[in-house]
Request: fold
Amino acid sequence: MNNDAIFVLDETGFIECNRGAEEMFGMTREQLLHKMPHHLSPENQPDGVDSEEEAREKIGLATTGDSQLFDWQHRRGDGTLFDAEVILNRIEVEGKPALLAIVHDITDRKKADETRLETEQMFRAIVENSHAGIFTVDEVFHITYANDMVSQLLLRPNEEIIGHDFREFLDEESRALVAERYVRRQMGEDVPPRYEFNILRKDGSKRRVEISSTIFRTASGKLRTVGQVLDITEHKKADEDLQKAHDELESRVGQRTSELSEANRLLQNEISQRVLAEESLRQSELKYRHLVQSANTIILEMNTEGRVTFFNRFAEKFFGFSEVEILGKSVIGTIVPPRDSADRNLAAMIDDIIKNPERYRHNENENIKRNGERVWIVWTNQPHFDEQGKLRDILCVGIDRTEQKKSEQKLARQEREQAAAAVRNRLARDLHDAVSQTLFSASLISEVLPRLWERDEKEGRRRLEEVRQLTRGALAEMRTLLLELRPDSLAEADISYLLNQLGESITGRSRVPVAVTVSGRCSVPVEVKVALYRIAQEALNNVAKHAGATNARVKLLCRAGRITLQINDNGKGFNTRGVPPNSLGLNIMKERAREIGAGITVRSKAGEGTAVRVSWKSLSPEAENDGNR
Reply:
């Protein structure tokens, strides 16, 4: 009370004040007297109400004898704002009604409340993002809180868990165990906080879990138990399998003592090592899931400037920075390089995370340790907002997956090498099967051509034309293979040129004449051109290998943003219903058509040849106009 400001006011304003009022507001008594309360307030209170109107309402109520107690934001003489608690009571001064106002500065209390709220939100976020199931129960076993991992363990939504007896989710043996341990602990016995039991899931299945529990009392004195559970079903199964293997070998020892004594010793050693390894792994996983500093995961918090405001011990050990060294520093240049190894702008990414945190609930990026080592981290990010909805900070939980990333990169490199080898082998095979055979045939005909010409000029001319067709086909086949070796050439070449080369190569290879006609101006995107070329290539390969045709036709019609490609042959045909989808490359052609949004039909009957038709329509208005020109 000694530090409180005390005022006496009537309808004209303040008529008296104490020394505390002068100190609190930084004004003299003369400056304070005859001012109204709203003169010492900002224009609006934090909740948006008009200070003058609200002050008049409070004064009016107090004047009628209704004492007022409320929080109010004041303004000192230097313009700074502070929060206060105000009490208004009606009094009489020299027989006239007046009000006694006591103003208590609550700035420190407000700051303490905000700090406590921020701490509570941070720990709540950590609990909600924990990989362990965390819950609390009251003195009668009713669950009062459960995080998302508990719902995942029980296969139940949160509303089917909160308020229910914890023992409902245990099998009969575990219910008795939990009750017995609870009673012993209530009686003051020293009961280990960590033990195992079985939980019942919603689908009827059981899972073995390990629990670590602690009893505490709330501010109101009520007893509460907080538990942290970890699913150890797979670990228990591994232990049981190992024990079973041990028992089986033990039964054989009696029959083969001399032969298996050494093997048994080695097996016992292996079992011991496996048990130790499993226990070590279980302990490691529990530590990994402990809250805040005991967590075996990277947990940090950064503010809206990208500066570190919290850094747990695991993060210190992992990155090589102490808490003193990292707090207040920007993540860029410390644990995040400005650009990653692929020249991706990570500084811009951090800015975008702060501006749009909802887009980065989960992300993966390259990080850097203090010693310069590059590592890959998977981050789970939880933004925190203030009462006005403005971003206050972002809690980041990270897991190191550097080794997995290296394995993925190695596997991708191997796959690229295998794909390149497959292409080389296929091109070598095509070169041998198509070009070599064609040139060999042309060579044989050329050798006998002079003698044949002398004997029968007409037959010689026919054979000479055949040599011409063979060499043109070989040349076209070579150009086609060069296109395969140089994908950029395939993208740059005109579609009519590609189809003509394809027709000539098929003619040279299979002796089946292929007529190619192109109508209209064909200006299409590269991916559409390549897809149409591949479909035509697959269809003509079928003509050469399976159709038994004497001729084939390729027709490309381009008009008004539409393209129609049709491949016909007069071969033996086939029953389209009796052919598996993956036969004759039908699936490949359909997939290529689907990738560019085109329709494709394949019509064929036995003895009537085959027709493949592809229809593509541009979605671009420019393409429509270009087609109309």
About this structure: Residues 236-289 form one domain.
